[in-house]
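forwarding from the other thread:

> can someone predict this with protoporphyrin IX containing FE?

sure thing
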Amino acid sequence: MECLQDPLSWVLAALLLALIMVLHKQRRPGYVLPPPPPGPKPLPIIGNVGIMGQLTPPGLAALARKHGGLMHLRLAWFRTYVVSTPEYAREVLQAQDSVFSDRPATVAISYLSYGRNDMAFADHGPFWRHTRKLCVMKLFSRRRSRTWLAVRQECAELVRAVAAASGRAEGVNLGKLMFRFTNNVVLRAAYSYSTAPGPDDDQGHDEIDIIGVLRECSDLFGAFSVGDVVPWFSWMDRQGINRRLRAARGALDGFLEKIIDEHVERGRKPDDPDADMVDGLLEFLDETSSSKAAGHGQQNTLHLTRKNIKAICMDIMVGGTDTVALAVEWAMAGLLHNPDVLMRLQKELADVVGLDRNVDESDLANLPFLKCVVKETLRLHPPIPLLLHKTAEDCTVGGYSVPRGSRVMVNVWAIGRDGEVWEDADKFCPTRFMPEGGAAGLDMKGGCFELLPFGSGRRSCPGMALGQYAMELTVAQLVHGFDWALPNGMKPAELDMGDRFGLTAPRAFRLAAVPTPRLTCPV
Ligand code: HEM
């Protein structure tokens, strides 16, 4: 955000904007902007840029309490609409899903997604439909046992790494371990890339620190620069975002090139039972087609460039690594912060599984309280707190006009903590989802607009089943296999529960905790 405080940038931006607005109005005589929903009063030309610092989920929630569940902000050149109630979320993500299914992109998102040659940031259309279907078939469908097997294999590695760290007074850095775990799942499942995890080192993948690069990408995905409010000023880079973007994508690119080369050399046919997602994508590789044609041209056939394939691989690595890792870290933090909930979960596990073996997949269906812990974690800490959408045409929502090309943010974080919707909204209370609780009927599939951690409608998360499975198995194995305490005698109430908001919402401080083995069998 530093460059937004740079006065020179703003003077230049304001002058250029004023000129463009005058020319724009002259070219379209009589054009009247449709009436927007309420929002903070904009200043001439720069609009609401002065409140950029409040564009975090809690900041937007506070603004929405003042201005309403559908709020309008004008960030210099861009119209932005913020949805903060289940009713408006239903309207945008269900009733008018087709209008709201494009994606906006910041400078950072465009760069990291290879100029939006990927699937997650592509606008809604044939290219997005084909590539999403392909990823679902090759990676996310339950029949792809390779993906579910990767979760189990890596979960076993994770438990071994935790056991190896037991007895250390400083505990184990759960945040770091989780990131390694989820990254290894994605590498194994999507690229058949086996890894050699260790409890403390971040390396593990030959010569490149892929975990470091992915962490940097996650941070950069949430970064704003001057170009995000005034596109013609993207070249201004006083806080060095462009330099960091080039370095991060360069490193990731080298890694992805290597993976693609290995797959081309191996030449597995897509119907080979061992074929993975990259083999599936390579079937459609057409080096002669341009990215533009690949992305936006063909209706019925899919032509992918190498750039498309790298961009889709990047989607899966970033989308699948950070989300699950930070969700499990939040779940463990919630349990350590609330020892009574941790005890209830341990009791459920002991009753259902016994203390002479670890939990396995077949137990998950018999652990209702575990599922409630996962839901409650995702209610309070949705890994993607703001859903980013864009309108494909002019439309009306709740009597307000929303023009074509508007950025729309659905504040899932605010909806999950709305005191009008939830009793004791800020309290970690998984029992609310049990049959005796007030929210027993709510699920996360996208039809309950009070609870939207995976989004809803056509742009909702294709990795939902995989993400839930990975969360349930990991939390169950960690809680069943070990007793947990905070390091250095820290009391549960002293655990810092602050967030750090970007495109995702990790903990402000990584979670460290001390494990003590609990089972009578070796892990
Ligand atoms: C706890 C786990 C997860 C959560 C909470 C989560 C949440 C989300 C959310 C909120 C969205 C955007 C929905 C919208 O805009 O309406 C999304 C999209 C996406 N997620 Fe996930 N996700 C998780 C796991 C995963 C995993 C494991 C993968 C891949 C391995 C993945 C890949 C994607 C992709 C590719 C998209 C873009 C879909 C599109 O634009 O069509 N996610 N996810």
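The CA atoms of residues 359 and 476 lie 7 Å apart. thats all i got for now
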